[in-house]
Each structure stands twice: as C-alpha cells, then as structure tokens.
Amino acid sequence: PGITGVSDIIKVRSIVGRFLEHTRIYYFENGGEPEIYASSADLMERNLFQRVEVCFPLRLKSIQEKVINDLNYYLKDNKQSWILNPDGTFTKTAPAENEEPFTAQITLLDTLAQQS
Q1: Mean pLDDT of 66-89
Q2: Do residues 85 and 2 make contact, with C-beta atoms less than 8 angstroms apart?
Q3: pLDDT given for residue 103 in this prediction
Q4: What whole-number distance in Å separates Cα of residue 102 and Cα of residue 80?
Q5: Does the pLDDT of residue 21 top 70, yes or no?
Q6: Are 104 and 62 in contact (CB under 8 A)?
C-alpha cells in the first residue's frame, strides 16, 4: 500500500468466514488478456523467503473462466470481506442501504450442492 502508480490500482479483499482458506488467486489483466495464478500463500516476506510455497499459472481457458466466476462471488461479498486501504489498514464491508447481504462461501456451497 501507498505506492503511487502501483498499489493504487491494485484491489485487495480478504474473506474471513467458515473456511479459513490459505489459497490465493492472483488475477491480472495484461493487455486485455487475463493472467491468473493460484498460490499456496500470500506475498508476505516470510512466505517468499522463509517457507516453501507454490505459485503457478492457470492456463486452460475453462479453468480460468471457472476461477473468474468464483472470484466474482468473492468480490461481491459484503458480509465476510475486508478491504485493504491505501494506508495498510483493513475496513470491514457491509451491505449498502437497500443492498441484499451476500456471502461468497455460502453461495459457493449452495452452487456446489445443486451440482451434486
């Protein structure tokens, strides 16, 4: 946070819910082409220099589409999400006035249950 021209165009959202998930998704638009990576950890110094972590690209379009669809649920979450502010602090989200509460993890569970 706080790097003009770099971090001010990056959005970070943290979900704290039923599942304490450790996986990370990194989604970049590179000239209009999505580049999506899955990682076992965030990009903190301890994970980069003191542990063995994995980060790999998702290249199959079908997998990219699925991940982007699921990611949109997380970006829409207004009940269990926290937004990283430019000063490095986090703010808890809440539904706006006249907005329905939306929880990504519940929605994904319901979607998976319907597919079974």
Answers
A1: 91
A2: no
A3: 94
A4: 9
A5: no
A6: no
Handedness of CA 35, 41, 44, 47 (dihedral sign): negative
DSSP state letters, 64-76? HHHHHHHHHHHHH
pLDDT for residue 90 is more than 90: yes
- Residue 8: per-residue pLDDT: 77
Lookup: tokens for 112 = 């998976």
What is the token pair recorded at 105? 């993890």
The rounded distance, in Å, linking the Cα atoms of 76 and 30 is 23
Tokens at 61, concatenated: 């379009």
Residue 87 tokens read as 């000063």
Q: What string of DSSP letters covers 25-68?
A: EEEEEETTEEEEEEESS-S-HHHHHSS---EEEE--HHHHHHHH
Q: Residue 82: is its pLDDT beyond 70?
A: yes
Q: How many CB atoms lie within 10 A of CB 47?
A: 16
Q: Please give the average per-residue pLDDT across 14-39, as a whole number.
A: 84
Token couple for 34: 């999505």
